[in-house]
Amino acid sequence: MKPASFDYHRPQTVEDALGLLARFGETAKPIAGGQSLGPMLNMRLARPRHLVDLNDLVELDFVRVVDGVLELGAMTRHQRVATSAEVRRAHPLLAAAAATIGHYPIRQRGTLGGSLVHADPAAQMPLIAVLANARIVIGGVGGMREIAACDFFQSVMTVDLRAGEIVTSVRFPVLAPNAGWGFRLFSRRHGDFAMVAVAATLALADDGRVADLKVAVGGVASVPFRIDLDASVFAGATPTASWIEEISAHVAERIAPEDNALVPAEYRRELTEALVRDGIKDALRNTQVEAA
Amino acid sequence: MSDKRTITLTVNGTTREADVEPRRLLSDVLREDLGLTGTHVGCEHGVCGACTVLIDDKPARACLTYAVQMEGHEITTIEAVGEETLSPLQQALHEEHGLQCGFCTPGIVMTFEAFLREMPDPSEAQVRDVLSGNLCRCTGYQNIVVAVLKAAAVMREKRP
Ligand SMILES: Cc1cc2nc3c(=O)[nH]c(=O)nc-3n(C[C@H](O)[C@H](O)[C@H](O)COP(=O)(O)OP(=O)(O)OC[C@H]3O[C@@H](n4cnc5c(N)ncnc54)[C@H](O)[C@@H]3O)c2cc1C
Ligand code: FES
Ligand code: FES
Known about the structure:
The structure holds two protein chains of two kinds.
Chain A: E1 7-9, H1 14-24, E2 28-31, H2 37-42, E3 50-53, E4 63-66, E5 69-73, H3 78-83, H4 85-90, H5 92-98, H6 104-109, H7 112-118, H8 124-131, E6 135-140, E7 143-148, H9 149-152, E8 153-155, E9 158-159, E10 166-173, E11 179-186, E12 196-204, E13 210-218, E14 225-226, H10 231-234, H11 241-254, H12 265-291
Parallel strand pairs in A: 1-3, 2-3
Antiparallel strand pairs in A: 4-5, 5-10, 6-7, 6-10, 8-9, 11-12, 12-13, 13-14
Chain B: E1 5-11, E2 14-20, H1 26-33, E3 52-55, E4 58-61, E5 74-76, H2 88-95, H3 105-118, H4 124-131, H5 142-158
Parallel strand pairs in B: 1-5
Antiparallel strand pairs in B: 1-2, 3-4, 3-5
One FE2/S2 (inorganic) cluster binds at residues 41-44, 46-51, 61, 63 of chain B.
């Protein structure tokens, strides 16, 4: 398995990278960690004539918190997202999810931007971006634009990115300090892409009733998505075990997973129900830890 | 467009030159151009871990890296580990029967040499999480886990 021939470019600035990508148009592809593109090149599922290496663009590898927004550069490696004290403080759910991506050596190379653009339907970073209402910052020779994560992901491995554009950073609203969170995934082998992944955040009011609940699911449709929870089901509820059962059944009803030979739709639905249940329990547990 | 070019690599502290096309995998350049056949190749798509080397001291798949990308970076391969005597990790793998055919072993050693530097006192669960990135068809993994934990203990003791 060897890639088809390509020409290699190693720009030193974002501006130069954008210039090269604009010049070569559809015949070029940026390479970040190479942990998804590498296999595709080696298997010749992708055959770009020009590879534009983003690895020298150190200005795209950063973590900062400004005005309640955690901003991460596109070239930030999964390992840094998983272990950075700043990310763990500002968005512990994002850090926890990043720690489950693939395996240790994969996380040393793979990047946040690459994961979002690769857009595997079961991938962790797209799921958290959608749940958290993150905004994707995109650069092109014509200038910058910003788009909501839920609009960025269009279909399986298809995102709203035009030839010549790159993702430069991602903005996550900081998770409210009183919010609990849960992240659960199931895969047959440790480190494989998830069959189903679930993320949840939960905030309680002072009286212990539910003030806010968000749940997102990956691996059950062409893109990860947030479940539009009917406020009447959760708002003001006391988070009892039966309430958690009700929410997870509700989510399982709202999805329409595809049926295939390896994973029957019914199995994916039951898995989703179980993961939502466990994810909300985790969220509840760590709100209480925060509260205590 | 894909002409060969001369690239300069730093491998195990030595500067080496190779004439390669940009599409050449780092794993192939190490093995075929530089004669460093300790880095093994199993799957060429990142799954098996056999080709794991260190890039700037961090473990990475040599099969998902193009050699041309590595100019200016430091590569460490299994040939640099235990040159005189076995490293504590290699010694523990030997004592605990952590290998049989040895095909997977270079990748496992490189992964854990780096991991144990970052995490000198790992839990068994952490070792198992990291080991998930390396396939071994012989050992059943149990003895590798035992060996890594033993190596960690030995290395901690040796520290001042
Ligand atoms: C064995 C193995 C297991 C894995 N398991 C998981 C898993 O469980 N979960 C998971 O989410 N992922 C998994 N991955 C994939 C990994 O997370 C990748 O790191 C990620 O999907 C892509 O990131 P990258 O930086 O490696 O991007 P690359 O592979 O370099 O690029 C991926 C795509 O994004 C484009 N691209 C990259 N950066 C940019 C940018 N800034 N702007 C525009 N386009 C860009 C490239 O052109 C390419 O199309 C696994 C990979 C391997 C090899
Ligand atoms: S050969 Fe590189 S991971 Fe299998
Ligand atoms: S010892 Fe044979 S593959 Fe691991």
